[in-house]
């Protein structure tokens, strides 16, 4: 088995995969010559460039070193007949659940309002809304979304989950389809976005869907930046120079269509927006390495393994 690794931590991945797959030859992409690239059986990569994909002419499989495959699927040099395996959770879900918890408490316990009051030296307590009276919606019930939904429910929040096709998850009210989405939006006080980036999910949060949400609802996006129409979001948040909240109370945003987020973006300076630099779910290296090694071994042996559906986008 010959594998090329392409990632910012290629040296670390090369050493660790060599220990887990001693029978394999592991090359770093930046050191592999054209002959080695052509000989490679598998590519383990995060956002490979077109040149690398075109020169890896003998691939039997690609392992995407992350949960999001939009950049890979959008690469014009991607060979269409090569199976793709992606990381599924690999320890990211727990980290993302913690991020979502922070956002939930930020709004449920009024920390956003207290922060603004501090700027005005205003001493005013707000009545606490109990967790059972704070329904949370989770859009996307894949491996990560389902775990995040269960974690929130275990904390005592009522959780409504939505996915393209219906799912059953204990303790979660699962909805699907356009009607299910409308029902969820009208009921939740906080909406969490964990959908993949596909043609059907881009700008799923837009003026129309934001208009269906409850007055004073909040938004948390540790998923994909393309899920949100940013102009519509800003309109729903209201004028940044006014202390009065807009229809949407606030947003915690970790992903954006262009990253890094341009300095000119009004999101940076909006008083009801928290911007984080795509850090909600960093991949724990040890768990990811175990999953990648197992995937490469299964692909090499021709075993059944769950692969990405390029048409669905995940």
UniProtKB/TrEMBL annotation:
GO molecular function, one term: NAD binding
Pfam families (UniProt xref): 2-Hacid_dh_C
Assigned keywords, A-Z: NAD, Oxidoreductase
Entry annotated with the keyword Oxidoreductase: yes
InterPro entries assigned to the protein according to its UniProt record, in alphabetical order: D-isomer_DH_CS1 (IPR029752), D-isomer_DH_NAD-bd (IPR006140), NAD(P)-bd_dom_sf (IPR036291)
Gene3D superfamilies xrefs: NAD(P)-binding Rossmann-like Domain
Domain D-isomer specific 2-hydroxyacid dehydrogenase NAD-binding: start-end pairs: 104-280
Keyword Transport: no
Protein name: Glyoxylate/hydroxypyruvate reductase A
